[in-house]
# Entry
Amino acid sequence: MANRNRKFAPKEQNVWKVPVEPNGPAASAGGGGDGVKNKPQKPAKTASPADDNAVSGSKIPVSRTATSMIKKSQEKFNQVQRQHAETARKYATEYVSSDEDDDGTTGGASDASTQAILGDVLKNYHGIDADVGRTQEYLQNLLESRNAVCLICIETVKRADKIWSCHSCYTFFHLMCIQRWANDSMSMKRINHEQQEGYYNNRGEYIPKPVLSVHWDCPKCRKEYQPQDIPRHYECFCRKEQNPSAHPWLIPHSCGEPCEKNLNPECGHTCRLLCHPGPCPPCPQTISVSCRCGSSALKTIRCSQKSWTCVKKCTRKLSCGIHECGAQCHEPGKCPPCKNRSKQQCLCGAKTKEVNCHESRWQCGTVCNKPFPCSIHKCELKCHDGPCGECPLGLPRSCPCGKTETRAASCSERIGTCGDTCQKVLECGQHHCTERCHQGPCGSCLVLVGKVCRCGATTKEVGCHREATCESKCKKVRTCGKHPCNRKCCDGQCPECDKVCGKTLPCGKHKCTSLCHQGLCYPCNQKSAVKCRCGGTSIEVQCGREKKANAPKCKLPCRIHSKCHHQNPHDCHQGECPPCTQLCGQPNDTTNCEHPCEARCHAAVKVVTKDKNFKPVGPWDVPQEVVEIKTLPHPPCPVKVPVMCLGGHETADWPCSNSKPSSCGRACGRKLRCGLHQCPLICHKVTHRASTTQDSRCEACTAGCAIPRPTGCVHPCQRACHNPPCNPCQVAIKTNCYCGLTQVFYKCHEFYPPDLDGKEKGELVEALKQRRASVMSCGQKCIKNLPCGHRCSATCHPGRCPNPELCAKKVKITCKCGHRKAEVNCNAARVTPTLGCDDQCTLLQERKRAELEKQQEEERARQAIENQKELEEYERKFNRRKHRERKRQEVEQEEGGRSWMYLLPVAVVLIAIAVYFLMLQ
# Structure
């Protein structure tokens, strides 16, 4: 996000994108946003021809033109080089993040969206506000991206990055960073385990290297995780959804669904917030529960506070059996120890002192010194309770070495040594004592044995009770991977490096104070202050992130003096001051009117100009830009003032800067002297604007006749403007007749006569129809057909043919059987389309039916003969073997029973033929 928010220089019109430094006093006056003027740079020294040759590195004489080109190229190169250096210095000292400008302009909207998201997440929580404070803090840190930092790579965690959050401290890291951290940690532990070796202790026993325990820790809280706990997928905070999509109205890295994690401590309820980072707040559910001691009535409280204490005091007896508890309400069986003091005797009863009741059994530390039953010896035990027991000297005893055992006559008799060799096993566990039987413990083992030193480099003979060591120093590298062990006769278990790391941390200010280690140092845990521009507001950020961190939002007023004549109040900011947004308010000297300038303040405007006559020498050569802070002239006055047009037709509101009378674009409209027409000119200047008659500047009447022609005539009168009436229209018109066979010619006044205007409406319509019919008819026979199909007998006429029902053409009609025929008129045929059948028609139908039945009978007989032939042929092929006489009757009966199967198709065919003929009739 730091790279994304960085403010870059504006794009240049250059192939190489070389930044250009403004030169001259004008550039220095407006270059810096903080009001500090840049000093004008000294012009470069003019290079001599000798220098040009030296630069080119050639001894060939160069022409004057080439020398001038090389000279200009060198000057341009030096100028670009200086501009690069100046730009780098400016970015290094005056770096400003673009987030500040965004924060200054959209701070309210960002805060509003943040509060809206927090409200959506916490809307289902109805507990105490203080309980949800820690979770709300995590939410705000996550929504404010500048506070979300991965502690491994020290980079900002963006909304779209894949993360993993610790289960203990809830710190989130980049998914790739935590995977690399876990794999590197386990790899280092495996390498260290491989470098370890077993060793021999001072007794010569081989001690193997410890068992490998591979795990990785959280970079912040050092919680141990197993190898299978390495995150493999990007999950939301509640771990329900993998790869959650980034949504602008949800918490980053959240799925937007209810959390539903089991609350801690477990109470049976789940978290009701939306998927969120950090710990879940305490359970806000309400339950009915009694106090800790159970003596109070049920009380409805929050589930997270279900263990509550009443004001009653416990009356149970303490362990001393004397005093009561007296403590406030607590769990049964968990009474505190009695704090009362009383005088108590020790275990042996010799002393008495004041002690706590729960410490009533105490030992005084003195020897018991009570006589045994033998009345000779006394008890040598320290203070104890109970009887001392029998005298230990009265039991069976042995000599000091334990080889001979005897029972003394009395406990006062002393058992001496046996005189034999002691032979007790010494402390080494391998050799025996070589002295005679003696009183007291045995001495050290003095047997010389060959022992391997701790490092295993040498073998020498030493006393068995001593450890063998050598003077060789261990050359193994310690776990830090840098310093050798250097311990004499090291046993292979080299201690941790005790030197301080001392490396410079990434912040560049502090050094690592941890012990010498491998890999990267932990991030600097110091804090640095980042101040705003005026220094009135500061925030603490992690050391080393001062340049990447955004300056704090300062609500104090900016201290930079405004460049215009306004105050231009605004908050403290980074970079240049915002342009003044107030109205100018000064008299408009451009229009020289009485209205004040209402445009945006233009007293200090940044103007960038380029040299139009610039000709580049090479690809590195770019046109030089000059940035100046200028006072722009006042714009034309936009105040609306009423202005009447030149012809006096209308009054419109025009800007004050363009308030001169002009043409409105309408026609003049003044009546000419002819009294029929108006002036056709566009609105023009006249002497009297209120007049409606022809002015001296109006155009004379040149129009033609304006008298309307008869209805239907579209041809204008060719005469000049005159009084009515007009001459009849003589335009010849050619068109088709009504029937369309020929074309007729007529004059316009014949079809649209002007002499019918004086007649009444009914007479006018009838006369017009008669005249047009006489003009449009060709006088020949009509070629149209009547609805019956015969040709019309009338002459050429308009519309439908007259009297189609009186057609007298002859047509033929028949009866239903087609035997009778007759010719009648067309109009009579439409009334009676068919004739009735007589007796002769009935006789012919009966004769046809008899012939059809005869043909059917012949067909059935022929079909029966063919079936019989097929049956005989079948018997001839398949019944050649002679059967016994006793089965002949059964076969005949079977054949007779199956004969209907062969007659069935014949019957079906006959029925079909009969149905066909019936349908024909």
